[in-house]
Amino acid sequence: MAVPEVTVLDGPMGTELSRRGVALPLPGWSAHALDAAPEMVALVHHEYALAGATIHTANTFRTKRRAVGDRWEGMARHAMRLARASIRPEHRLAGSLAPLEDCYRPDQSPGRSSRSEHRELARVLADEGADLLLCETFSAEDEAVVAVEEAARTGIETWIALTAGRDGSLMTPRAMAKLARTCASAGAHAVLVNCTPASDTLRFVEAIAGSTPAFGAYANAGAPEQGLGWQAEPDGAAAAYARMAQGWIEAGATIVGGCCGTRPEHIAELARIAGALTGRGERRRDRS
Predict the structure, then answer these.
(1) Percent of the residues in the chain that have a pLDDT greater than 70, as a whole number
(2) 121-158 pLDDT, tens per residue?
(3) Which residues, in sequence order, are CB contacts of 225 under 8 Å at separation 6+?
């Protein structure tokens, strides 16, 4: 039986840039590539489009005031324009809003005092023509809700992606489900699980099911020894990752993609599986 149509997101920017040899020092991390290697940022976007992704996230994860200083706005606008020029016109472009501090340290979150910084970035991304705003890799409840509220106030469709952390221990499935419902009430149109090991993502997907009409996941590749990404042989790793993603789709997910450690090969395999499961056959790769 065919399942509802599945939307394929792109994969990670930061770990893919690092794999290709781009230096990404903290705290700016992936934002540094906007200066040092903009052509590589554009190429990564383009390769995800070729692989079959139809929603692309601009490299604005770290283009925030406390990560890159007063240049944050110009860098955010540059990231949006680079992405838009690298994908097909009919594809959707997401502006990324991330936690202001370490994604895996909710104890460091500024909580509700983060509002002004999330507001200023959300407004710039909206002004640059974002088709949606993706608040991603949040685990601190108060900051997640604030980010969603400020993104939604722009009038742009808003999604929230929640993480249980590198080892799935930052929150329980029950806690994530509760936060998913709270974010939906704050204005999120879709809730996703992200940057949680792919091998541990299904229980979180099952927990958030029904919190919003659309939900899904874009997981990380887990530990290198799991062979799901990083330096593993790409085709085999992509196939193994996609088999796990098939479980998310069978649990009702209608949005899937990749996070840290995945590559364009993973997105291509997701597009193939999504096409097969939804009864549309293998998706044709965009050759433009």
Answers:
(1) 95
(2) 999 999 999 999 999 999 999 999 999 999 999 999 99
(3) none
Q: Using CB atoms within 10 A of its CB, is residue 1 exposed (0-12), middle (13-18) or buried (19+)?
A: exposed
Candidate CATH numbers 3.40.50.150, 3.20.20.330, 3.50.50.60, 3.40.50.2300; the one for domain 7-277: 3.20.20.330
Q: What's the half-sphere exposure (Cβ side, CA atoms, 13 Å) at 142?
A: 11
Question: Residue 159 and residue 142: Cα distance in Å, rounded?
Answer: 16
**CA trace torsion 176, 179, 184, 188 (10° rounding):** -80
Length in residues, the chain: 288
235-262 pLDDT per residue, tens:
999 999 999 999 999 999 999 999 999 9
- Tokens 């394929």, residue located: 8
**Looking at the predicted structure, is the pLDDT value of residue 38 above 70?**
yes
Kindly tell me if the per-residue pLDDT of 283 is higher than 80: no
Query: pTM (2 decimals)?
Result: 0.93
| CA–CA distance, 259 with 197 (Å, rounded to integer) | 9
Lowest mean pLDDT segment, chosen from 57-71, 173-187, 228-242: 228-242
Helix (H) or strand (E) holding 7, with range, is strand 7-8
Residue extents of the structural domains in the chain: 7-277
Angle at 16 (CA atoms; ends 80, 35), nearest 5 degrees: 45
Looking at the DSSP bridge assignments, the partners of residue 158 are 133
Give how far Cα 57 sits from Cα of 104, 134, 136, 202, 257, Å: 20, 8, 10, 23, 11
How far does the chain reach from its first CA to its final CA, in angstroms?
A: 32
